[in-house]
Every structure is written in C-alpha cells, then in structure tokens.
Amino acid sequence: MADLSQNSSHPLPEAKGPRLAWLKTPWTVSLLILCAVLLLDPGNFQAVVIFAAKALAHTGRYILFAVLLLAYLKATGAETMVARAFVGREVRMIFLAAVFGGLAPFCSCEVIPFIAGLLALGAPLSAVMAFWLASPLIDPPTLLITAGALGWDFAIGKAVIAVALGLFGGFFVKTLMGQGAFADPLKQAPSCSSCCSSGPKLDDKPHWKFWQDPERRLKFRSEFISNGLFLLKWLALAYVLEAILVHYVPADLIAGLVGGDGVVPIVLAALVGMPAYLNSYVAPPLLAGLMEQGMSAGAAMSFMVAGAVSSIPAMAAVWSLVKPKVFATYLGLGVSGAIVSGVLFQLI
Known about the structure:
It comes from Pseudophaeobacter arcticus. Belongs to the UPF0718 family. The chain crosses the membrane at residues 20-40, 91-107, 114-134, 154-173, 224-248, 254-278, 299-321, 327-347. It is found in: Cell membrane. This is Permease. There is one protein chain. The chain has helices at 26-40, 42-76, 80-83, 90-100, 108-120, 125-134, 140-150, 152-178, 214-248, 251-258, 263-273, 283-292, 297-309, 312-321, 324-347. The chain is mostly helical and 348 residues long. It has one domain. Helix 1 runs parallel beside helix 9 (214-248). The longest helix has 35 residues, at 42-76. It is globular.
C-alpha cells in the first residue's frame, strides 16, 4: 500500500481562504521551479522542460493503468479480502498479511481503523506488523510507476523485498511475543475523521461487476479522477525535480556519496532516505536521476525501502495505535531491512 494520504480527502490547511489553497500544491512547486530556471538559466529552460515532459509521457501509460486498477479495487470493495487474511492460524496470517500488504487499496487514513479493529478483535501483532512493513513499500500503482521509471527488474525486486520484509518482521515479532514481549501493544483506539470512519468487515464480499451498481459506478469515477489527479501532480513534480537533478547536480558528487559497490553507500542511503520523506510516486523518478549520476542500484533500493517505511503517513498510522516499544520495533525493522535489502539487491 502506498501513500495516498495527500489526496483531496485530506487537504492541507487553506492559506487565507480557498482561492489561495492552490499555493500549497505540487503544481505550484513545479511551476516555481521552472520559473526559477527560466529566470536564472534561460538557456537550459527548454532542455529541462523537454526532459520532464518526455519522462512524464513515458510513464503515462503506467499511470493510466494504475489509476484504472486502483479505482476498480475500490469500487468492487476488494479490501474485504485483506480482512480475511487475519483469520486462522498465526503463521498463515503472517504470510497472507505480508502478501496482501502490497495489494491493499487503502489510503493511510483508512489503515488506522482497519488495523485498530483487527487488534481489538485479537489479531496477533505479528501479522499486523507484517502488513504494516509491507504495505508502504508496494501496491499496484507503485509497482507500475517504479517499472516505468527504473525498469521491471527494480520494480519486481522491490515487490519481493516488500513481502520478504513483511515476513521477516512478522516472524521476528512472533518470536519476541513467544518470550513475553508486546503483551499489551495497543494504545487506546484513536478517533478518526469521517473519511476513515469504518473499515472492511470479515463478512463483506467484493462486488466484481461494480458497473451493475450505480453507487459503485460513482465510486469508480470518483476514485479514478481523484487518484489520477493525485498521481499526475506528484509525478509532474518528480520529473521536474529529476530534470533539475540531472542538469545541475554534478555526477561526481552523487557517485562520491552513494556510488560504488560497498556497504557504506547502502547504509548511507538508508540513513538519508529515512528522514527524507518522499512518497512512493516521487521517489522512483528521482532515484532514476540519481542512478544516472552514479548512485548504485543497492543504494537506490536501500533509500527507497527506508524512505517508504519511515514515511510520515506510515509512521503516523503505527504511532497512533501502538505503544512506543512496538513503534521502535517497526522503525528498527524497517531501517535494518532497508540496508539488508540494498546489500542483497546489489549482489543479485
């Protein structure tokens, strides 16, 4: 599950009224960057614009398919299948939670009541941890956008790492629970806004032929438009930033910091990626630019995994529900998993 928390259902506070709210959007940042290039380096303006436009056009087909798929999953109510992964034997739950963590069509807000309900009903923390670690790393739209920017090898590698990290985290927590840890992991259930007032129920069933229901058709249209605009604005910003990176950041600087095949660049990339929050749609284009400048593949994977796990929505969802020891475990597993993932991806 990727970060969709910044869509229209979670607007930023308005700047002195609705008419100025657009000043806080990625469109404005992209426009300001291009205006700065036009003013400070007009000779390079056309090259920067063409680079960003071509990159965005190349990813366009992936965006369209991703938005259609996400809208279909939401309109059919496919998230009910995820709830069923948390029923049965604990080992089975961990495996299914790690897999469905990469398929769940939830935004970060919707995860909170979903997970709170599961923990309150007695779902083991091990399975929940598997879901939490896997979900920020990959989902169908992120997989397609990563493939468009970095190639299918990188995208598939990231998907495999997401499931593997979820499994590792789930079984690690299961082992600690067997020794008496995390006996009471849940904080008092938080209140949530109307956008996430309810989660999927175990007895709900997906309606695959959503077009037969007018309400679901409306849901499909709403999700298609909102997610399409969301992806378009963030990817436009991402490719503008990539163009700036390629044109103005010296390649030898990037290669000196995170280039090479050693472990140090991979560890450094994880430590830098952890606080540098980039959602899963902005990161692939920027990493493509960094790799063109000399960043190693292992460092790029380490940066992406650490950045996704430590993203603001992912951490907020965990922090809002569980006690500090569980949160620290989540963060520690994410960062250490990012470093190991980078090393293994570099070797492969």
